[in-house]
Amino acid sequence: KAGVTQTPRYLIKTRGQQVTLSCSPISGHRSVSWYQQTPGQGLQFLFEYFSETQRNKGNFPGRFSGRQFSNSRSEMNVSTLELGDSALYLCASSSVTGGRYNEQFFGPGTRLTVL
Amino acid sequence: AQSVTQLGSHVSVSEGALVLLRCNYSSSVPPYLFWYVQYPNQGLQLLLKYTTGATLVKGINGFEAEFKKSETSFHLTKPSAHMSDAAEYFCAVSDRGGAQKLVFGQGTRLTINP
């Protein structure tokens, strides 16, 4: 079974631009979560989607948004980029069994650099 | 609110020596606990998890961890370090109601000396 895939792997943008990152979960996984990883703040939860609905949200400004499609693929968008948005963005997917979430499997991440 | 503290941002051991990475958590509800490993320029790989049942959990690559509720700890161990174990290790916690919001520790970078 193919793992979680994220595109693109690397991205360079300038301040003020917007960016969209894509995540394809493992086949059959309906939950997708996004995390931001920076040297200073570590790994921080952004949001989680299940069946096209945002179920959980972390403490990030409204410039960070996401969505999930009917095939469980997810995108996250960051508008009006700031230098501090430079980070590794990780996507993770998980299955749900009997109403209980199973462990998350992570993709390789998208490295975003904001100049 | 849940939190995770990993004691030691850098740990260095000799090849063949015991690996011990420390993790303490804070949670107002019974937690799910995880250890993930991250190699350079890669995502996170699950090493092991504790949800319910046996408190000693065995994972991949010879790692294991023991859930100690009284000490709020979930330390990661491996009897004999290999050079390939050099990586960054993250302890994470989530609550049992919705295991999708992982709260991570700051990570421990493990170096293996030949």
Give me the secondary-structure topology.
The complex is a heterodimer of chains A (115) and B (114).
Chain A (H helix, E strand, L loop, with lengths): L4 E3 L2 E4 L5 E6 L6 E8 L3 E9 L2 E5 L6 E5 L5 E5 L8 E8 L1 E2 L2 E2 L3 E2 L3 E5 L1
Parallel strand pairs in A: 2-13
Antiparallel strand pairs in A: 1-3, 3-8, 4-5, 4-9, 5-6, 7-8, 9-12, 9-13, 10-11
Chain B lengths: L2 E5 L2 E5 L4 E8 L4 E8 L5 E7 L5 E3 L5 E5 L4 E6 L8 E9 L7 E2 L3 E6 L1
Parallel strand pairs in B: 2-11
Antiparallel strand pairs in B: 1-3, 3-8, 4-5, 4-9, 6-7, 7-8, 9-10, 9-11
Descriptive report:
The complex is a heterodimer of chains A (115) and B (114). Chain A has 115 residues and is mainly beta. Chain A has no helices and 13 strands. In chain A, the strands form 3 sheets. In chain A, strands 2, 4, 5, 6, 9, 12 and 13 form a 7-stranded mixed sheet that branches. Chain A has a 4-stranded antiparallel sheet with strand order 1-3-8-7, with no helix packed on it. The radius of gyration of chain A is 14 Å and the shape is globular. Chain B is mainly β and 114 residues long. Chain B has strands at 3-7, 10-14, 19-26, 31-38, 44-50, 56-58, 64-68, 73-78, 87-95, 103-104, 108-113. In chain B, strands 2, 4, 5, 9, 10 and 11 form a 6-stranded mixed sheet that branches. In chain B, a hairpin with a 5-residue loop joins strand 6 (56-58) and strand 7. Chain B is globular, with a radius of gyration of 13 Å. Chain B starts with a strand and ends with a strand. Chain A binds chain B through residues 4, 31, 33, 35, 42-45, 48, 50, 55-56, 58, 90, 92, 94, 100-109, and chain B through 34, 36, 41-46, 49, 90, 92, 98-107.
